[in-house]
Amino acid sequence: MLELIKVFEQVVESGSFSQAGKALNMAPSSVARNVDSLENRLKTTLFKRSTRQLILTEEGQYFHQESAKILQDTNKLLAEMRGNHGIPEGVLRISVFESFGNLYLTSLIPAFLELYPKIQIELELDNNVVDLNSENIDIAIRIGTPQDSRLKARHLLTNYTSLVATPSYIQQHSPIKKPEDLQHHNCLLISHERQRNYWYFSKKQVNKKVSVTGNLISKGGSPLLYAALQGSGVLLLSDWMLNPYLENQQLVKLLPHWTATHSEQGSGEIFAIYKSTQYPKPHIRVFLDFLVEKLKLMALVNAR
């Protein structure tokens, strides 16, 4: 019965028999048979089936609510009985936006795998927002908290941003003494999939919204950073990407007395997002703990 419940819960998480099959390494037909068997044993229908989607019935919603507790309590009990002998293992699927993945995650993963050799990591460097359930992702690292109430988030970094350009660009172009001056400059832009791009500035009680244009737009920050280093334009980007180039003076801060952001609400925070459950799987939990600790140490070093 417990195995049938596990299959049912994975179908709810994944949203389809085929996606649940991928997560469980089972054929979709086997997943469907398991759900049928569970419904027969319960003498009730758990899903409304259609060619497009699976929807929980009222009985299915109640069963999902109660059975999730059973699985969580079971996992907790097994973990308690194993004590320290339960070494985290399994496949850990991580989606992270490319700049953060390249600069931070790829350098940390080897040390993590040395600590936990039974864990296998599948890493996706992708700037598109993924659906953790349908795409079978365990952890997604993104800027901003999730809107989906089924997801949880752990804070990793505060995403401070700075306005920068190379010394050569500053010398060769008109001065930038106030935010409005940027309208006369080539600005390297993060793609927000909208017709016009704006940068937001604040200083004490003054707030300004400036329309900016440029000849390079990218979903990721790396292409924009490389272009800025070649003197192609003015860049607004996260400090964790800019710090090495500010230290060696390849880039210089502009309008230092203003706080510049991509959004009116600020530049946001970076979070590790994962599926909401009272007891995350051990290999997910240890990776989150490892990542939070390492990034905290790196932030302290950078702050000195």
TrEMBL record:
Protein source organism: Photobacterium lutimaris
Protein name: LysR family transcriptional regulator
InterPro entries: LysR-type_TF_proteobact-type, LysR_HTH_N, LysR_subst-bd, WH-like_DNA-bd_sf, WH_DNA-bd_sf
Similarity comment text for this entry: Belongs to the LysR transcriptional regulatory family.
Residue stretches making up the HTH lysR-type domain: 1-57
PANTHER family: HTH-TYPE TRANSCRIPTIONAL ACTIVATOR TTDR-RELATED, HTH-TYPE TRANSCRIPTIONAL REGULATOR
Gene Ontology MF terms: DNA binding; DNA-binding transcription factor activity
A Pfam family of this chain: LysR_substrate
Alphabetical keyword list: DNA-binding, Transcription, Transcription regulation
Lineage: Bacteria, Pseudomonadati, Pseudomonadota, Gammaproteobacteria, Vibrionales
Gene3D superfamilies: 3.40.190.290, Winged helix-like DNA-binding domain superfamily/Winged helix DNA-binding domain
This protein's record includes keyword Transcription regulation: yes
